[in-house]
Amino acid sequence: MPAEGGHPDIAPRGTAFAALDAMIRPRSVAVIGASDDATRIGGRPIAYMTNQGFAGAILPVNPNRATVQGLPAFASVSALTQVPDVAIVAVPGEAAVQAVADLGAKGCRAAIVFTAGFAEVDEAGAAMQDRLVAAARQHGMRILGPNCLGLFNAAVGFYPMFSTSFEQGWPIRGNIGIASQSGAYGTHLFATSRARGLGTTVCVTTGNESDVSLGEVIGWMAQAPEVEVICAYAEGIRESARFTAALDLARRNRKPIVMMKVGRSELGGHAAKSHTASIAGDDAVTDAVLREFGVVRASTTEQMLDIAYAASRRIYPAKNTLGVITVSGGAGVLISDAAESVGLPMPEMPQAAQDKLRSLISFSAPRNPVDCTAQAVNQTEMFEHFLETTAEAGGYESMLVFLTQTGGSTTMAPKLRPYLKQAREKFADRLWVLSVIASADKVKGYEEDGYIVFEDPTRAVNAIAAMGSFGAAFAAAGEREEIVLPEVQLPATTPTEAEGKRILAEAGVPAVPEKACASVEEAVAAAEAFGYPVVAKILSPDILHKSEIGGVILDLADAAAVREAHATLLARAAERAPGARIEGVLIAKQIKGAVEMALGIARDPVFGPVAMVGLGGVFIEILKDVSFRRCPFGEAEAEQMIRSLKGFPLLDGARGRPKADVAALASALAALSRFAAGAGDRLAGVDVNPLLVLPQGQGAFAADAVIGVGDSH
Fold first, then answer.
1. With the CA atoms of 93, 98, 102 and 107 taken in that order, what torsion angle do they form, in degrees rounded to the nearest 10?
2. Closest by alpha carbon to 633, among 665, 663, 676?
3. Which among 105, 93, 161, 91 has a CA at the least distance from the CA of 132?
4. N or C, which end of the chain is more exposed by having fewer CB within 10 Å?
């Protein structure tokens, strides 16, 4: 693992993803198992490519026919008169393995394996899949699948796919690419896009991902001129380096990704022993990784396509604000609620601009939403003033105009459209969205004028917010600071609380003043040195969560209380954890007036160490108000995580409280992330709970900590 330079698991950027060109943008294709029947799996791709004018050579391989669908056929791979860039494999079982071996020996660079019955079925299938991959790798050949539906690239008429979806129409040319682990759902997205009039030029389904992964496909799209907007469907992320490299490349190339990630599960391994791991879960970690790279997550197909549709305009406001012009006060309230729910700011119009608009229509409400009332569309010259004044004076990055049925009216639409077009052209750098109920031809006209059109204003707001998320991510793409990882030497086994806090303090997570005491006299002496009140805790490497056995006693005000607590803790440990090794009692200075927070590290099986921050004490598992991020990261990212918490007002002076030392909290969180990244895979997890955050300028200190140490993987 490198010692510096940001994330150690992001693969180097460059032209690596372009290696899939032979698979997705080939000049020649062989079809193993080619069929003369255009409705069979081995026949559909030939029929589709012939129909759509694939310019490259199509080389059918069928030992029983001289021709296939009018094309000369070859009896075997070895009989091919030229080396294909890619091959479609549509023969069963072991024949598919042999075909891949033969293709590799021939010099073919890639294979798209339709054949099912591999790792998705049973152990025997998994073993056969291993042989398939080994045969390909022997010759440096790439495999898509097996058990995949294939792909299409409409830009070059390439259709190595056996989906029936093309029977209802061909792809509309456009700038959207679909990358999907599910073949059926990938083509469902394509067909739904087509029905909505969206242009999806490329669709790639990955099947079993024995070789080519979803991340690599996204990476190819991130550098491919055919694709400007990426829609991805994932059931699980198999590997992190290529996936995160792909997300990083897409962000740097200003190509938005909207992803539907399905499936939720708990982290394995140490979940039962770690508060952090039990809260994390694979889905929460994946969500954090997607947010890190500016990927917008969609929960429905409709939402995904709404966002892709809006993104196809390629206007991504970095500091998004929304200005709204509406003919309905009620719709303005609805839009305001929707904007607040997604964190989209709607600043008020400047007072001078409000006065100007109110002078035009005295009963208008021009704050923002700007309710121009129906009067503005009855006096269409007023509508022009409202449009341009709101855009210019408000300075909004995005504009939503709600016209409902008026925008589709045969009498009013022709009068309003020129003003709408003029405003969009005058402020062409803004994102202009129209909410109307109109016929298909009128909607198309508005789109030709540069508008994004939705019937439902709430869907419009969600799409506008997503464009701002993309813009902010693109703007921040080059801002990541270089992070130097520390040299971390973990102990052989899980350390005690005292040793754990010492290790973390050296890494930059300060601890509350404390002393491990082997006797009651040492405990009293420590308490006298710290000053009362103090806290006493049982000290054992086998008792990770001391409060669960009554192993923490607070508010010890004098020596007698310390003596009594010492005896009580030893008795409780003997009774409630009889097999635990007891190393004494920990005496710590009791800190008052602090906000209790929690920091943690969980080891995700795909993305490695992931840091967590949330409200501390018992509330972390009850409220689950937490934020996650992949390790390592700097103080700026740490503060963003902290400010994203719903409970952040507790740190920010809510209800007359003093402002907490957020900078110290962010410093501790960033230091913990560096420690976790530098510790390697023997670090099973970390829980710091509570971390006591004192008022501004006074620091943050770990009051309890657990470091889990496992075997090297």
1. 60
2. 676
3. 93
4. C
The per-residue pLDDT for 335 is 98
Tokens of 502: 């010492």
Predicted confidence band of residue 268 (pLDDT cuts 50, 70, 90): very low
- For residues 403 and 377, is the Cβ–Cβ distance under 8 A? yes
d(CA 432, CA 416): 15
Question: β-strand 86-89 against 28-32: which pairing, if any?
Answer: parallel
Burial of 352 (0-12, 13-18, 19+ CB in 10 A): exposed
- CA separation, residue 537 to residues 434, 523, 556, 573 (Å): 63, 11, 11, 11
Could you tell me the pLDDT band of residue 277, with boundaries at 50, 70 and 90? very low
Question: Which residues 6+ apart lie within 8 Å of 644 measured at CB?
Answer: 627
Residues 6+ apart with CB under 8 A from 129: 118, 119, 146, 208, 210
d(CA 442, CA 445): 5
Rounded Cα distance, 100 and 98, in Å:
5
Average pLDDT for 48-61: 97
100: which 2 tokens? 């891949």
Burial-class residue 560 by CB neighbours within 10 Å (0-12, 13-18, 19+).
exposed
pLDDT of residue 712: 60
Cα of first residue to Cα of last residue in the chain, in angstroms, is: 14
34 neighbors 73 (Cβ within 8 angstroms): yes
Q: State how far the Cα of 559 lies from the Cα of 533, in Å rounded to an integer.
A: 10
Which of 105-114, 278-287, 587-596, 673-682 bottoms out in mean pLDDT, i.e. has the lowest? Answer: 278-287
For the chain, give the number of residues.
Answer: 713
Pairing of strands 296-297, 257-261: parallel
Residue 641 near residue 599 (C-beta atoms within 8 A)? no
> How does DSSP assign 414-468, residue by residue?
HHHHHHHHHHHHHTTTSEEEEEE---HHHHHHHHHTT-EEESSHHHHHHHHHHHH
**Nearest residue to 24 via CA among 241, 201, 233, 251:** 201
Q: Is the pLDDT of residue 3 over 70?
A: no
User: Domains in the chain, start-ordered, CATH in brackets?
Assistant: 16-255 (3.40.50.720), 316-475 (3.40.50.261), 513-589 (3.30.1490.20), 595-709 (3.30.470.20)
For 567-648, where are the E strands, in sequence order? 584-589, 595-604, 608-615, 626-630
Residue 265 has pLDDT above 60, yes or no: no
Torsion of CA 599, 605, 606, 609, to 10 degrees: 30
Distance between CA 336 and CA 322 in Å, rounded?
10
The single-letter code of the amino acid at 544 is: L
Cα-based angle 488, 490, 491 (whole degrees, multiple of 5) = 150
pLDDT average, residue stretch 521-548: 93
Q: Is the pLDDT of residue 368 over 60?
A: yes
Task: Give the sign of the dihedral formed by CA 490, CA 495, CA 498, CA 501.
Answer: positive
Q: Measured at the alpha carbon of residue 649, what is the angle toward residues 643 and 651, in degrees to the nearest 5?
A: 80
d(C-alpha 124, C-alpha 514), whole Å: 58
551 pLDDT above the threshold of 60: yes
